[in-house]
Specification:
Elements: H1 2-41, E1 62-66, H2 72-86, E2 92-96, H3 104-109, H4 113-118, E3 124-127, H5 133-147, E4 151-156, H6 158-174, E5 180-185, H7 200-218
C-alpha cells in the first residue's frame, strides 16, 4: 500500500514538474517576444526634434540640465557660457538630480576651463534631492513656480529627451505652473542614435529607456 502511494505521488510530482516546465517555456517565449518586439520598436524614442538648433538661443529663465548622463553637465555648461557671452543676463543654470553628496567644488570640476573661469555660485542651482525623472520634473516645477519662471531650456541625452519633455510638461501642469519647455539634446554617448543596435551599450540604454517611455506614456500618471 505504501509503495503504491509513493508511486502515485511520484507520478503526480512528474506531472506537476512537466506542467511547470511547459509554463516556464511559455513564459520565456512571451518575455522573449516582448524583448524582440521592443528591439524593433525602441528606435521610436529617437524620433524627436529639438526645439532649439544650438545656433539661435531663445530667451529663457533657466537652463535645466538633467544630471546622470556622462558629459551632460559639461555640454550644458558650454550652452550657459554662450548665453552669458551673448545675452544681457544669463539664465540660471539649474542642475537637476546631482545627488545628495554633491558640492559646488565637485560641480565645477565637471565644467570646461573657460566656463569655470566665469561662472559663480549665484548663477547655479544644485538640486540634490531627486533620483529619477519624475522627481526631477516635480522639484523643478515647484522651484519654477516659486521663482516665477515661464520658459526653460531642458538639456539631456537624445535617448532620454522624449520622455523627459513629456513628463516635465505633465508635472508642471499638475503643479499648476505650465512651463514653456525648449529642448536641446547633448550627444555624449559612445554610439550614434541611428545605429544603437550595433553597440551593446546602445542596446541596453535604448531598451531600458523604451520600456520607461511606454510605462509613463500609457500606464503611469503623474
Amino acid at each position: 500500500m505504501e509503495l503504491q502511494t509513493e508511486s502515485t505521488l511520484s507520478q503526480e510530482f512528474k506531472k506537476i514538474r512537466g506542467l511547470l516546465k511547459i509554463l516556464l517555456v511559455t513564459l520565456g517565449g512571451v518575455v522573449g517576444g516582448i524583448f524582440l518586439l521592443a528591439y524593433f520598436l525602441a528606435g521610436e524614442i529617437y524620433e524627436y526634434q529639438d526645439t532649439v538648433d544650438g545656433v539661435h538661443l531663445p530667451e529663457v529663465d533657466a537652463i535645466v540640465c538633467l544630471a546622470g548622463g556622462r558629459g551632460r553637465i559639461a555640454g550644458a555648461g558650454d550652452i550657459w557660457y554662450r548665453y552669458q557671452e551673448s545675452k544681457d543676463t544669463a539664465p540660471t543654470f539649474y542642475i537637476s538630480g546631482m545627488g545628495h553628496q554633491s558640492t559646488w567644488a565637485g560641480f565645477r570640476k565637471l565644467l570646461r576651463t573657460g566656463v569655470r573661469d566665469v561662472i559663480r555660485q549665484e548663477n547655479v542651482v544644485l538640486e540634490t534631492e531627486s533620483t529619477n525623472t519624475e522627481a526631477n520634473a516635480r522639484l523643478l516645477a515647484r522651484y519654477a513656480k516659486a521663482k516665477n519662471w515661464k520658459r526653460i531650456l531642458l538639456i539631456t541625452s537624445p535617448y532620454h529627451m522624449r520622455r523627459s519633455r513629456m513628463m516635465f510638461e505633465r508635472v508642471s501642469a499638475v503643479e499648476e505652473w505650465p512651463l514653456r519647455i525648449e529642448t536641446i539634446s547633448i550627444y555624449q554617448e559612445p554610439f550614434d542614435p541611428s545605429e544603437w543596435r550595433l553597440n551593446l551599450h546602445g542596446v541596453r540604454v535604448t531598451l531600458s529607456e523604451y520600456f520607461k517611455w511606454i510605462y509613463y506614456r500609457f500606464i503611469r500618471t503623474v
